[in-house]
TrEMBL record:
Belongs to the RecR family. Keywords: DNA damage, DNA recombination, DNA repair, Metal-binding, Zinc, Zinc-finger. This is Recombination protein RecR. It holds the Pfam family RecR_HhH. The keyword Cytoplasm does not apply. A zinc finger (C4-type) spans 58-73. It comes from Wenyingzhuangia heitensis. NCBIfam families: recR. Residues 81-176 form the Toprim domain. May play a role in DNA repair. It seems to be involved in an RecBC-independent recombinational process of DNA repair. It may act with RecF and RecO.
Amino acid sequence: MDFSSKLLENAVNEVSQLPGIGKRTALRLVLHLLRQPKEQTGYLTRALDNLVTDIKLCKNCYNISDVELCEICSSHKRDETTICVVEDVRDVMAIENTAQFQGMYHVLGGKISPMEGIGPNNLQIESLVDKVKAGKVKELVFALSSTMEGDTTNFYIYKQVKDLDIKISAIARGISVGDELEYADEVTLGRSILNRIPFENSLRQ
Ligand SMILES: [Zn+2]
């Protein structure tokens, strides 16, 4: 692609780094930003800037938060003995939308994926195991997507906590194999949390 402007080229290159955005789409988006009032584009750049500068991870559940302890972790209405293990903030949002889960979350920050070079140490697994060992937790609910990476991650954690005195369950698979949680409709997802099954049973399916 030949650009008439270096500034334009730089902006397009940066935008095209985003997942699913090719050079052509990036050019279309950048030209759109140029066409709209400067003020409008300023809102976008400021929002992104603030996001990068001010965003935190909750020190208890590692969900994305504006404050040290997220709203869910600081709520007195939540049951801190039940922890739902999820991959990222999108899963927390999807499950919260169902209004069927009153426990807490633990956000791993991804799944074990040797292909992508993501090992257990790149995820919040040790902190989860420590949390369980601390003794307050009565149940872990695995709610990772039902992919090979999700299953591997579940099993890795399971091995480390299975001898501790807790219940380990997995959300029921009304969600078909390979589906990401965020794509499941609220009713299906809500039901699969309520009808969760012992994790050992999910292994045999
Ligand atoms: Zn939290």
